[in-house]
Protein backbone atom coordinates (compact mmCIF):
# COMPACT_ATOMS: atom_id res chain seq x y z
CA UNK A 1 0.00 0.00 0.00
CA UNK A 2 1.30 3.48 -0.86
CA UNK A 3 0.34 7.07 -0.08
CA UNK A 4 1.58 9.74 -2.44
CA UNK A 5 1.86 13.50 -2.21
CA UNK A 6 3.38 15.71 -4.94
CA UNK A 7 6.99 15.11 -3.89
CA UNK A 8 7.07 12.10 -1.56
CA UNK A 9 6.01 8.51 -2.19
CA UNK A 10 5.82 6.16 0.82
CA UNK A 11 5.66 2.43 0.16
CA UNK A 12 4.88 -0.11 2.92
CA UNK A 13 6.10 -3.67 2.44
CA UNK A 14 4.47 -6.91 3.51
CA UNK A 15 5.62 -8.49 6.76
CA UNK A 16 9.21 -9.71 6.76
CA UNK A 17 11.28 -11.54 9.33
CA UNK A 18 15.00 -11.63 10.09
CA UNK A 19 16.92 -12.64 13.19
CA UNK A 20 13.57 -13.70 14.66
CA UNK A 21 12.21 -10.15 14.35
CA UNK A 22 9.00 -9.32 12.51
CA UNK A 23 9.03 -6.01 10.65
CA UNK A 24 7.82 -4.00 7.67
CA UNK A 25 9.82 -1.65 5.45
CA UNK A 26 8.63 1.90 4.89
CA UNK A 27 10.44 3.04 1.76
CA UNK A 28 10.80 6.71 0.82
CA UNK A 29 10.87 7.74 -2.81
CA UNK A 30 11.34 11.41 -3.73
CA UNK A 31 9.38 11.78 -6.94
CA UNK A 32 10.42 15.15 -8.35
CA UNK A 33 13.09 14.93 -11.03
CA UNK A 34 15.55 16.91 -8.89
CA UNK A 35 14.65 14.77 -5.82
CA UNK A 36 13.97 17.95 -3.83
CA UNK A 37 11.21 18.41 -1.25
CA UNK A 38 10.18 21.24 1.05
CA UNK A 39 9.21 21.19 4.75
CA UNK A 40 5.65 22.20 3.88
CA UNK A 41 5.30 18.82 2.13
CA UNK A 42 4.96 17.29 5.59
CA UNK A 43 1.62 19.02 6.15
CA UNK A 44 -0.34 16.57 4.00
CA UNK A 45 1.96 13.55 4.33
CA UNK A 46 0.25 10.43 5.67
CA UNK A 47 1.59 7.04 6.62
CA UNK A 48 0.29 4.18 4.46
CA UNK A 49 -2.43 2.07 6.05
CA UNK A 50 -1.63 -1.45 7.20
CA UNK A 51 1.20 -0.79 9.65
CA UNK A 52 1.40 -3.58 12.22
CA UNK A 53 2.21 -1.97 15.57
CA UNK A 54 3.16 -5.33 17.10
CA UNK A 55 6.27 -5.49 14.90
CA UNK A 56 9.04 -3.13 13.88
CA UNK A 57 9.30 -0.71 10.99
CA UNK A 58 12.49 -0.07 9.01
CA UNK A 59 12.58 3.34 7.32
CA UNK A 60 14.61 3.27 4.11
CA UNK A 61 15.33 5.50 1.14
CA UNK A 62 16.76 8.92 0.36
CA UNK A 63 15.42 11.80 2.38
CA UNK A 64 16.45 14.76 4.56
CA UNK A 65 16.94 14.37 8.30
CA UNK A 66 13.73 16.23 9.08
CA UNK A 67 11.68 13.76 7.00
CA UNK A 68 13.21 10.79 8.84
CA UNK A 69 12.56 12.51 12.18
CA UNK A 70 8.93 13.13 11.28
CA UNK A 71 8.37 9.53 10.17
CA UNK A 72 10.05 8.14 13.29
CA UNK A 73 7.77 10.29 15.45
CA UNK A 74 4.64 9.18 13.57
CA UNK A 75 5.69 5.52 13.92
CA UNK A 76 6.07 5.78 17.70
CA UNK A 77 3.25 3.25 18.46
CA UNK A 78 5.17 0.40 16.76
CA UNK A 79 7.29 -2.11 18.70
CA UNK A 80 10.52 -0.64 17.34
CA UNK A 81 11.82 1.70 14.65
CA UNK A 82 15.07 1.45 12.70
CA UNK A 83 16.66 3.56 9.96
CA UNK A 84 18.39 1.74 7.13
CA UNK A 85 21.99 2.84 6.54
CA UNK A 86 23.28 1.18 3.34
CA UNK A 87 26.87 1.95 4.39
CA UNK A 88 26.41 -0.38 7.36
CA UNK A 89 24.51 -3.05 5.45
CA UNK A 90 21.67 -2.85 7.95
CA UNK A 91 19.21 -0.72 9.88
CA UNK A 92 20.04 1.08 13.13
CA UNK A 93 17.41 0.87 15.86
CA UNK A 94 16.47 4.42 16.89
CA UNK A 95 13.32 3.64 18.84
CA UNK A 96 12.73 0.58 21.04
CA UNK A 97 9.30 0.28 22.68
CA UNK A 98 9.61 -3.41 23.56
CA UNK A 99 12.38 -5.69 24.82
CA UNK A 100 12.82 -7.30 21.38
CA UNK A 101 15.62 -4.92 20.41
CA UNK A 102 17.80 -2.25 21.97
CA UNK A 103 18.74 1.26 20.91
CA UNK A 104 21.76 1.31 18.61
CA UNK A 105 21.36 -2.32 17.53
CA UNK A 106 22.05 -2.95 13.85
CA UNK A 107 19.49 -5.18 12.16
CA UNK A 108 21.34 -6.86 9.29
CA UNK A 109 18.90 -6.73 6.39
CA UNK A 110 18.95 -9.33 3.66
CA UNK A 111 20.36 -8.04 0.37
CA UNK A 112 18.73 -9.59 -2.72
CA UNK A 113 21.09 -12.17 -4.27
CA UNK A 114 20.94 -10.40 -7.66
CA UNK A 115 22.83 -7.47 -6.13
CA UNK A 116 26.54 -8.18 -6.36
CA UNK A 117 29.09 -5.38 -6.65
CA UNK A 118 28.23 -2.33 -8.73
CA UNK A 119 30.98 -0.02 -10.04
CA UNK A 120 32.55 2.47 -7.62
CA UNK A 121 34.09 5.56 -9.23
CA UNK A 122 36.79 7.25 -7.15
CA UNK A 123 37.15 10.98 -7.92
CA UNK A 124 40.74 12.08 -7.23
CA UNK A 125 43.13 14.93 -7.91
CA UNK A 126 45.21 17.59 -6.18
CA UNK A 127 43.72 20.22 -3.84
CA UNK A 128 41.78 23.19 -5.24
CA UNK A 129 40.84 21.38 -8.43
CA UNK A 130 37.09 21.29 -7.77
CA UNK A 131 36.71 17.60 -6.78
CA UNK A 132 33.88 18.11 -4.30
CA UNK A 133 32.00 20.54 -6.53
CA UNK A 134 32.40 18.28 -9.57
CA UNK A 135 31.40 15.15 -7.62
CA UNK A 136 28.25 16.87 -6.42
CA UNK A 137 27.40 18.14 -9.91
CA UNK A 138 27.94 14.66 -11.39
CA UNK A 139 25.83 13.07 -8.67
CA UNK A 140 22.97 15.53 -9.16
CA UNK A 141 23.08 15.08 -12.95
CA UNK A 142 22.80 11.30 -12.72
CA UNK A 143 20.39 11.16 -9.79
CA UNK A 144 17.53 12.50 -11.90
CA UNK A 145 17.99 9.51 -14.21
CA UNK A 146 18.67 6.80 -11.65
CA UNK A 147 17.87 7.03 -7.91
CA UNK A 148 20.24 4.13 -7.09
CA UNK A 149 23.35 6.31 -7.20
CA UNK A 150 25.24 7.20 -4.03
CA UNK A 151 27.87 9.86 -3.37
CA UNK A 152 30.21 8.82 -0.54
CA UNK A 153 32.35 11.59 0.94
CA UNK A 154 35.45 9.77 2.20
CA UNK A 155 37.12 12.92 3.44
CA UNK A 156 37.10 14.85 6.69
CA UNK A 157 37.17 18.41 5.30
CA UNK A 158 33.51 19.07 6.18
CA UNK A 159 32.56 19.77 2.56
CA UNK A 160 29.54 17.49 2.32
CA UNK A 161 26.52 17.65 0.03
CA UNK A 162 24.58 19.78 2.51
CA UNK A 163 27.35 22.41 2.36
CA UNK A 164 27.41 22.50 -1.43
CA UNK A 165 23.64 23.03 -1.48
CA UNK A 166 23.93 26.27 0.50
CA UNK A 167 23.75 29.49 -1.52
CA UNK A 168 25.84 31.73 0.73
CA UNK A 169 29.63 31.46 0.55
CA UNK A 170 29.87 32.62 4.17
CA UNK A 171 27.47 29.87 5.27
CA UNK A 172 29.41 27.25 3.32
CA UNK A 173 32.72 28.23 4.87
CA UNK A 174 31.16 28.34 8.34
CA UNK A 175 29.73 24.83 8.02
CA UNK A 176 33.02 23.50 6.67
CA UNK A 177 34.96 24.92 9.62
CA UNK A 178 32.41 23.60 12.10
CA UNK A 179 32.38 20.08 10.65
CA UNK A 180 36.00 19.61 9.66
CA UNK A 181 37.62 16.58 11.28
CA UNK A 182 40.96 14.82 11.13
CA UNK A 183 42.53 11.55 10.04
CA UNK A 184 42.38 8.61 12.44
CA UNK A 185 43.58 5.00 11.88
CA UNK A 186 39.94 3.89 11.58
CA UNK A 187 38.83 6.53 9.07
CA UNK A 188 39.71 4.99 5.69
CA UNK A 189 39.05 1.34 6.72
CA UNK A 190 35.55 2.45 7.77
CA UNK A 191 34.95 4.11 4.42
CA UNK A 192 36.38 1.12 2.54
CA UNK A 193 33.82 -1.16 4.21
CA UNK A 194 31.05 1.39 3.67
CA UNK A 195 31.83 1.52 -0.06
CA UNK A 196 31.67 -2.27 -0.33
CA UNK A 197 28.30 -2.30 1.41
CA UNK A 198 27.02 0.43 -0.91
CA UNK A 199 28.26 -1.48 -3.96
CA UNK A 200 26.04 -4.40 -2.95
CA UNK A 201 22.92 -2.22 -2.88
CA UNK A 202 23.34 0.57 -5.45
CA UNK A 203 23.91 0.86 -9.21
CA UNK A 204 26.85 3.26 -8.95
CA UNK A 205 28.87 4.67 -6.05
CA UNK A 206 30.81 7.94 -6.54
CA UNK A 207 33.62 8.38 -3.99
CA UNK A 208 35.31 11.70 -3.14
CA UNK A 209 38.55 10.95 -1.25
CA UNK A 210 40.28 14.32 -0.99
CA UNK A 211 43.38 15.76 -2.59
CA UNK A 212 46.46 13.86 -1.39
CA UNK A 213 48.09 10.64 -2.57
CA UNK A 214 48.31 8.79 0.75
CA UNK A 215 49.02 5.13 1.56
CA UNK A 216 46.34 5.40 4.27
CA UNK A 217 43.76 5.53 1.45
CA UNK A 218 44.50 1.98 0.31
CA UNK A 219 41.32 0.54 1.95
CA UNK A 220 39.26 2.96 -0.17
CA UNK A 221 41.35 2.19 -3.24
CA UNK A 222 40.76 -1.53 -2.79
CA UNK A 223 37.00 -0.98 -2.42
CA UNK A 224 36.64 0.91 -5.74
CA UNK A 225 36.67 -0.28 -9.34
CA UNK A 226 37.23 2.87 -11.46
CA UNK A 227 38.73 6.32 -11.08
CA UNK A 228 38.42 9.81 -12.54
CA UNK A 229 41.11 12.47 -12.15
CA UNK A 230 40.22 16.16 -11.96
CA UNK A 231 43.28 18.37 -11.74
CA UNK A 232 44.11 22.05 -11.98
CA UNK A 233 47.78 20.99 -12.09
CA UNK A 234 48.63 19.00 -15.25
CA UNK A 235 51.92 17.78 -13.78
CA UNK A 236 50.05 16.12 -10.87
CA UNK A 237 48.02 13.79 -13.09
CA UNK A 238 50.64 11.05 -13.49
CA UNK A 239 51.04 10.52 -9.74
CA UNK A 240 47.32 9.80 -9.49
CA UNK A 241 47.54 7.35 -12.41
CA UNK A 242 50.34 5.57 -10.59
CA UNK A 243 48.33 5.44 -7.37
CA UNK A 244 44.96 4.42 -8.83
CA UNK A 245 45.82 2.45 -11.98
CA UNK A 246 49.22 0.97 -11.21
CA UNK A 247 48.92 0.44 -7.47
CA UNK A 248 45.16 -0.04 -7.11
CA UNK A 249 44.50 -1.76 -10.46
CA UNK A 250 41.53 0.56 -11.03
CA UNK A 251 40.24 1.38 -14.51
CA UNK A 252 40.56 5.02 -15.67
CA UNK A 253 37.35 6.65 -16.90
CA UNK A 254 38.44 10.25 -17.52
CA UNK A 255 40.97 12.97 -16.83
CA UNK A 256 39.56 16.47 -16.39
CA UNK A 257 41.97 19.37 -16.69
CA UNK A 258 40.19 21.81 -14.43
CA UNK A 259 40.27 25.49 -15.41
CA UNK A 260 38.58 28.66 -14.17
CA UNK A 261 37.45 29.68 -17.64
CA UNK A 262 34.18 28.62 -19.29
CA UNK A 263 35.80 26.02 -21.55
CA UNK A 264 34.94 22.56 -22.88
CA UNK A 265 37.64 21.01 -25.06
CA UNK A 266 38.06 17.27 -25.62
CA UNK A 267 41.70 16.20 -26.03
CA UNK A 268 41.04 12.50 -26.65
CA UNK A 269 38.37 9.84 -26.25
CA UNK A 270 40.40 6.64 -25.94
CA UNK A 271 41.55 4.68 -24.01
CA UNK A 272 39.88 7.09 -21.57
CA UNK A 273 38.40 10.55 -21.95
CA UNK A 274 40.63 13.61 -21.55
CA UNK A 275 38.83 16.94 -21.39
CA UNK A 276 39.60 20.50 -20.37
CA UNK A 277 36.57 22.13 -18.78
CA UNK A 278 35.41 24.38 -15.99
CA UNK A 279 34.89 26.21 -13.83
CA UNK A 280 34.36 23.79 -10.92
CA UNK A 281 33.81 26.45 -8.29
CA UNK A 282 30.86 26.70 -5.90
CA UNK A 283 28.27 29.06 -7.31
CA UNK A 284 29.84 29.11 -10.79
CA UNK A 285 29.52 25.51 -11.96
CA UNK A 286 27.71 24.79 -15.21
CA UNK A 287 26.27 21.47 -16.33
CA UNK A 288 28.55 18.45 -16.53
CA UNK A 289 29.61 18.05 -20.20
CA UNK A 290 27.50 15.47 -22.02
CA UNK A 291 30.54 13.55 -23.26
CA UNK A 292 31.64 13.12 -19.66
CA UNK A 293 28.17 12.08 -18.52
CA UNK A 294 28.09 9.45 -21.26
CA UNK A 295 31.34 7.93 -20.00
CA UNK A 296 30.02 7.67 -16.47
CA UNK A 297 26.63 6.41 -17.66
CA UNK A 298 28.45 3.54 -19.37
CA UNK A 299 29.42 2.28 -15.90
CA UNK A 300 25.73 1.87 -15.08
CA UNK A 301 25.39 -0.45 -18.05
CA UNK A 302 28.19 -2.75 -16.90
CA UNK A 303 27.29 -6.15 -15.44
CA UNK A 304 27.89 -6.18 -11.71
CA UNK A 305 31.13 -7.77 -10.54
CA UNK A 306 31.31 -10.59 -8.03
CA UNK A 307 34.82 -9.68 -6.92
TrEMBL record:
Alphabetical list of Pfam families matching this protein: Cas_csx3
InterPro entries xref list: CRISPR-assoc_prot_Crn3/Csx3 (IPR013409), P-loop_NTPase (IPR027417)
Domain of life: Bacteria
Coiled coil: none
Name of the molecule in the record: CRISPR-associated protein Csx3
Amino acid sequence: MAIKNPGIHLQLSQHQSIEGLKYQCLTIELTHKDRMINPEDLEHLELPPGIDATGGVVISGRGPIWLYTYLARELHPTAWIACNDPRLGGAVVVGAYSDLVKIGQIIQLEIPPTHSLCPALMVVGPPDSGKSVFSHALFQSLLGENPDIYLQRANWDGEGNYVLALESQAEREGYKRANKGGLTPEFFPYHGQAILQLRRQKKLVIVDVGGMVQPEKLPVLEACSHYLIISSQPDAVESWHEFCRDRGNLTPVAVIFSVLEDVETVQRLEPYLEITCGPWVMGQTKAVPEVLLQRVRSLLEMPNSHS
